[in-house]
């Protein structure tokens, strides 16, 4: 056995746990969102990360276009950028379609599963997004739709 040492099996378990943790962290670092732009100049932020991980927050409210043309949660004291799951598209009519086929547009009230995270202004993971789209808090939608 390659991991035989004074610590016995525990050493191998610790090495395996450290390797798994490193893989999880590196997977998160590839989750930098990109964006899609409609012919009308409307923008949606889209995750580049495939994930089965589901957060349990719920955004229930109206979506709209922010000052920079990005789709946002426009309810509340400050707008929040929404990062949609990988596979989300925007069409010529500025209608957004999630990978599960659910469609909506600005002004619609929607219920989306996901989670809110604070943006790190120094982070390069948000640098692909157009200037003015990144907000202090960002809602990462999971693709689950509330009825």
In short:
With 147 residues, the chain is of the alpha+beta class. The chain is built from one helix and ten strands; from the N terminus they run αββββββββββ.
What does this structure look like?
It is a single chain. The chain is of the alpha+beta class and 147 residues long. It has one helix spanning 9-29; strands at 34-37, 43-46, 57-65, 71-73, 80-84, 89-90, 96-97, 103-104, 109-118, 137-145. The chain has a 5-stranded mixed β-barrel with strand order 3-4-5-10-9. The protein has a 3-stranded antiparallel beta sheet with strand order 6-7-8, with no helix packed on it. The longest helix is centred in the first third of the chain and has 21 residues, at 9-29. The model is unreliable at 1-30 (pLDDT under 50).
Write the layout of secondary structure elements.
Blueprint: H1 9-29, E1 34-37, E2 43-46, E3 57-65, E4 71-73, E5 80-84, E6 89-90, E7 96-97, E8 103-104, E9 109-118, E10 137-145
**DSSP strand tally:** 10
Main sheet summary: 5 strands, mixed, barrel
Structural class: alpha+beta
Strand order of the largest sheet: 3-4-5-10-9
Q: Which regions contain 5 or more consecutive residues with pLDDT less than 50?
A: 1-30
Order of helices and strands: HEEEEEEEEEE
Shape verdict: globular
Q: Determine the fraction of residues in helical runs and give it as a percent range.
A: 10-25%
- Percent strand equals 25-35%
- Could you tell me the radius of gyration in angstroms? 19 Å
On the 0-100 scale, what is the average pLDDT?
Answer: 78
Number of helices: 1
Distance between the termini: 54 Å
């Amino acid at each position: 056995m390659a991991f035989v040492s004074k610590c016995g099996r525990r050493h191998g378990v610790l090495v395996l746990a450290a390797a798994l943790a490193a893989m999880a962290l590196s997977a998160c670092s590839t989750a930098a969102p990109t964006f899609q732009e409609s012919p009308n100049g409307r923008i949606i932020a889209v995750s580049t990360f495939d994930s089965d991980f589901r957060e349990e927050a719920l955004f229930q409210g109206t979506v709209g276009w922010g000052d920079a043309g990005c789709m946002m949660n426009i309810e509340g004291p400050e707008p929040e950028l929404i990062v949609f799951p990988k596979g989300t598209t925007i069409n010529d009519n500025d209608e957004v379609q999630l990978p599960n086929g659910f469609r909506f547009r600005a002004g619609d009230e929607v219920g989306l599963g996901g989670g809110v995270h604070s943006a790190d202004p120094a982070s390069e993971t948000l640098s692909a997004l157009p200037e003015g789209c990144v907000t202090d808090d960002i809602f990462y939608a999971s693709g689950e739709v509330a009825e």
